[in-house]
Protein 1
Amino acid sequence: MTTLKQRLVAQIAQDGPLTVAQYMTAALHDPEAGYYARHAALGADGDFVTAPEISQMFGELVGLWCVDAWAGMGAPSPVALVELGPGGGRMMTDMARVMKVAPAFQQAAHITLVETSPVLRQRQAEALSGLPVSWAAHIGDVPPGPALIVGNEFLDCMPIRQAVRTQTGWRERLVGVRGDDLVFGLSGAAADPSLVPPERADAPVGAVLETAPSLPGFVALLAARFRDHPGRALFVDYGGDGRGDTLQALARHAKVDPLAGPGGADLTAHVDFVTLAELARNAGLDVTGPVGQGAWLGALGIDVRAARLAAARPESAATIERQRRRLVDADAMGVLFQAICLSSPGLPPPAGFA
Ligand code: SAH
């Protein structure tokens, strides 16, 4: 059987090198061997652990955040409750449980999971069995109307292109072949000007800039949606500003060579919150944040929630405290991960960002 790597080596040998974005798309979404399409191993026994999988508190607080955001939108009914890239379905499971405190919201919310991977859709169906949910392959397929959209570690798998400053100007980092292996190289010609914003063009030799080519279209789609109907989108992710090489591959909780085994490891890059906020503002959306995940969860009441859970299950108090710290501490996920909210103009401030 040919592996995805062998297929890519053959393709590159014939047609020339791939951009990093093209490589990421193949490695993550190839229908036969892409990481998400086929192998996605999330959770403690898998390749990486995300905030909702660390503790139920994360999804619960996101669920309460949605209840508050919905009230601030004038409590529209129906309202689309959309999760982008739900992975194993853990966050929506915890969100749905706390939504019971607001029966009117629970009634109004039509849950849609935006997921491309058939393997993960199956897993989400199992996690959420009993709940009325539907699936879409793309946010653009979710019917128009008021919406609350949430995504944890969704934007970090948006493919990126990389520009590298060399002695002779900006070049694009490309994936080529040497023998039977995939290797990084640089374009012979100057990098596409869209990869090098003028205000960043003057960076020192060795500097790397990252651009997600699909981000502008994604933001435009949210903006159009939130112009016609009230809406709010919450993203939590590894934060960055588009500077530096942040392409990373994770397998079994360890960083691995991103080119060694395409399809076998998760591939991500830090989200450029500066560009995301700028695109959203230019499209007429209100932008709140980004703020650190620790500060955001703190403002939403994670300490109170942790204390309640610990009181209900004293035998698990130490575990709950460890989980809380992992989510909020500055040397864990509290600062590197950030929350940002994009909203229809004129809505009240979203919770947790004060
Ligand atoms: N949100 C989950 C999983 C994060 S992993 C958690 O926090 O645990 C990324 C998720 O996004 C996976 O479910 C993956 O299949 C999905 N995904 C990645 N790219 C996507 C795309 N372009 N469209 C829809 N879903 C995508």
Protein 2
Amino acid sequence: MLKTTDTEDLKFIQEAAEFSVIDNCGEHVHYRGLIEFSNICHLDCYYCGIRKSNSGVERFLLKEQEVVDLALWCADNGYGSIVLQSGERKDRKFVDSVIRMVKAIKKQSISEALPEGLGITLCVGEHPKDVYQEMYDAGAHRYLLRIESTNTEIFNTMHPDNQKLSERMECLTWLREIGFQVGTGVMFGIPGQTYDMLADDILFFKKRDIDMIGMGPYIVHKATPLPNDGNQFQVKGDDLVRLSLLMIAITRLVLKDVNIAATTALQTVDPQGREKGLMHGANIIMPQLTPTEQRAKYLLYEDKPCQDDTMEECKSCLGGRIRSVERIVAQNSWGDSKHALKRKHP
Ligand code: SAH
């Protein structure tokens, strides 16, 4: 199915995926307010603009109070859930700060509309199991850790030798054992990647009983070493959009009741990418909360959209995009995936 190019076949897959998301998850689209609170990173992923070796990036770390205030803005605006994302750091100072922020947000976001406070997703990289446990105990109940590619060869072309696929896999195991709702995902269009590998990635999500998927096309950042020499994958340009939408649609058809994000990277390759993502089975949107002056420093890839939009602008723009595809923005709910809820209460 990933190789589909025929217009009618593509339309058929799109309609099946759209039917599946509405049938399994409902018409609602859930927001996760995305706070990219630091670009300081100790990893050196070959594709990523904020990799450790990119000395051209000015590093930042938001103040804890600033992060809490942004989260509370989400709560006041009915978002229900947030994602705290950053570069990867393992030091105790960083971990303690994440834990303090989670606790403060949890406590201060309780209201009549959100009796259990905001739903918090963490996306702060690889950690030992006991650290994940501390983060969970602090009140974060979801964790996103993209596996990037489940194919060892491709993973190794994307990462230096000291970053191991097996270690990232083990983190996913621990997150599940602790009780997090677990999110993962991959990038597509990596040099050497094939359709078969992407099909295996989808089967991996299924085998690992994953609750949430965030994935998108690889977009080149010129200050990074991962090549994009035109021999990349079997696709380019419009084909990358087609492949991205097929990945979402087929993941929806295979996994059925999980949450799938229409990502910013998708909007980068197609101005209507997020709407199309929703029509192909996505049900999650992550509006940016990162203060505009810091966004330019959190450039994972070039041409990242919405660089100058304030959080109010993001809110109204996305609301319009969601209504344009006849879906409804959920208000004041965590929007946990049906898949995770069924595991908890079969
Ligand atoms: N360090 C955190 C957050 C990483 S940023 C963690 O790994 O959990 C979130 C995601 O952005 C990454 O997992 C990666 O899949 C994606 N990303 C990074 N560079 C990219 C690029 N050049 N093109 C597209 N997506 C990219």
Protein 3
Amino acid sequence: MNLPAASSTHVFPLLADPRGYQACPLDLRDQPQLRAYWIGVFRDHFPKLIEEALRTAEAAGQAVGMVHNRLRESQVAFHQWLDRADAEPHGFGRLTILTMCIERERVLRFAGVDDAYRLAKQRENQKALSVLPSLLDQLDAMPDDARAVAVIEGIFAGNIFDMGAVQTADLFRDGASVDFHQVRGRLAKRPWLIDGLDSWLARLRGKPYRRAVLFVDNAGPDIVLGMIPFARDLLRRGTDVLLTANTLASLNDVTIDELHELLVQVATIDPVIREAVGKGRLSCVASGNGYPLIDLANVSLELVEAVQSRAVDLVVIEGMGRAVESNIDAVFTCDALKLAMVKDPGVARVLGGRMYDLVMKFDSPA
Ligand code: MG
């Protein structure tokens, strides 16, 4: 059985303190309230995951009854594991939300479900691709600074496509969707919960970065209307871009295979992306990850080699799971940008903010 990230033990080379680094530093063993909160979140979310998995199975012509039975067994196994984690929190080593994600993927793959959200991702990818040409026209008509702000706002708006968070999952339930432009128009006003926009804009007016590595998050508007326009803006400013996506599917995260396909489609729409791919200025690589969060001490050799061979001087991590829950305090040897919309009340509380608050953390090495 192919379990996520089982064989990769490579450390992301741009971590400033690889020995001191820990993904998801918040250990739930000694945090009974937070532990109970997260166990509740994972428990309440699983039925939503089953619904999406059944829709995917049905669309693929699978025997839905059998898939349903296997998923119900997975749910029982996962709930038993959560019960044990709550009753014996010290029996698991570190207990974090990443540990819970790992266990959830384990029970799903044991049931033969390797991509529960495939259908939802395909639907949102197609919808986002139809919006992309007019969005790019709109961005191209803007002056430099305004465009830099608009692409960041686009990342926030696209990041609302998150079927791992209970509240935003409901926005996309049963084939429902949201309008990208409406979401972008209703984003929280500045100053954002963490607001590094001014220093980012000031930095962009200086010498361009050589190469950036972008850890992308979800499929649909997140990648197509958020991260690809952001990557395109960096390319236009003279920065080469390496996109890195999950090796294996998890929730509605875009996988590396899906990203390759999307880039081919975007290249047919947009000459800037087409030229950048053709010249090798835009490329993508599998991260080795198979979870909605990421442990940067456990990435693929492919990613390590790609970063080392390209003299990367900017790290961008996007999405609540990767940028906030697992890596908000991660320090890098180069400039780093962490971007996310907050879509969980527990995460909001830890950050001292509210639902749908925005995080843009921009750090330069001391
Ligand atoms: Mg995600």
